[in-house]
Amino acid sequence: MEVQKEIKEIKETKEIKEIKKHSKRSKQEAKTAYLCLIPAFIGLSVITYIPLIAVFIISFFKWKGASAPVFNGFDNYIRLFTTDPYFMDSMKVTVYFSIVTVIGSMIYSLAIAMLLNRRIPARGLFRVIFYLPYILPAAAVYIGWSWLYENNFGVFNYVLKSIGIKGIMFLNDSSAVVPSLALIAIWLTGNLIVIFLAGLQNVPRSYHEAAEIDGANSWQRFVNITLPCMSPIIFYNLIMSLIANMQIVTPALALTGGGPGNSSMFMTYLMYRYAFKSNQIGYACSISFVFFIIIAVFTVILFATSKSWIFYEEADN
Amino acid sequence: MKDKVTGHKSASSYQGRIMRERIGNGASFVILLVMAAAVMLPIWWIFRSSLMSNTELYAWPPAFFPGRWLFSNYTETLQVFKLWLYLANTMTIIVPSVIGGTITAVLSGYAFARLRFGGKRFIFSLCVGSMLLPTMVTLIPLYIMWTRGLGLSNTYWPLIIPYFCGGGAFNIFLIRQFICTIPRELDEAASIDGAGPLRILFSIIVPAIKPAMIVVGLLLFITIWNDLLQQTIYINRPEDFTIVIGLSMFRSGLKADWAKIMCATCLSFVPGLLIYMVGQKYFVEGIVMTGLKN
To answer: What ipTM, to 2 d.p.?
Structure first.
């Protein structure tokens, strides 16, 4: 009896020790986690979320360069939407560019990825080629392409003229400049191809075989198997490339300076001009904030509609 | 009798399928060949233009190959385009940023993947949110903070320090995903042997995630390499110029000397190409991983 009691006690203390040890370990774990997350936390607060709040606050001030900021309510926003000669064009141009580029690069990348997903020779080499533009510095790419787009001696106009089409003033024509820049941006999207390719390799082959036996042609298989299986990846690429392309600024900075007219006055470039060329800091912040709202609206719309078209496999947790 | 017929039929349809697949593959190959040529054309055209004289550049019709390969264009360009200075400046920004970004991304990714702590979901969702927040939005307050608040104008610090703060949400996820694929048993065995979480990170996790770390390093390299806007804002003096600023200044300075501009463009392609060749394998692997788990 005594012995049993003793054993029981020993067991209990052991258990308590075990629990204590465990909680000590989990405390240590939490401590390490906080330690590891210090840099990221500083990053998220000091260089991400606090500046976002700051943009919102500064946008209600008139703040010209060196002078002290003066509160002026909604004046900046009123000026943006009523008298600003650039802003409305800038919004249109930015959205136009993003939509053309996002749709173009999604179709281009998915098509190339599907071709690369077949059993063909030299796949590795093709993959390297299509991916290559992505790693070149964008500023250099835009400058290089500007020579290809040259009005009289560029290669594109040479090709157009030799097939009997009148030349286009790619970068000097206000209706051609956005599509021309979008083509470069599409050319630069090698990373989407690689992501799509990875997704395609995960579409079970048996689905296609089963459908083929049931007599589905390749278009039906694309619509009913490939697209649904790929929908999460399409969604991811769509959001990421939309956000990236809305922020387009490099071509305006390196090449067009927003012209001709306002036809490549992208919002980020306009913000840059107000903030750093004419020192209207408060006003530039109101552009930043409107820009943030536009992206947020697009993102919310995409997320809200995503449930209806994204197909998640049930096994997927 | 009946069986024989259906057997025959299915065999022929099987052969038909193989045939169709072969034709499809052949057509795909041809289309890819054409597309690859189209994709490479701009790069070839830039390169071929860099080797021509300006009179040849303005000839009609334009030649596909240079008449004489003027490699002397490059030596002439290098006398005006300070490639080595710009490269050294760019590396002064990139090397510490890449190292800092990779290390802090590993630390944060590890915490999210393996450790239990209060507020994990909250911090994680902050991280997710920051992925959807365009960096352009916060540009102005950060500029004011770095230059007026901390007096760091005309230094590279505003371009470097942010990379020591987690290296971007995307890279944290990449590391986290990679760590999640490592079996937990390894950590548990080590922790039974008395290793603390940090020991586990450095002795077990880090050696196992080297490919992911290389990918993060390469992605950071490209991001910084491409970031013309922030470099334009923080860098004012010609002796501090990076390659992309140097190139765009070079172009606006030399409006019509296209041969030299194309030389400078080609030269600024080279460092990225070299890095890509070295890391190509990891690069594709890493992109594949990041795309899959989202």
So the answer is: 0.86
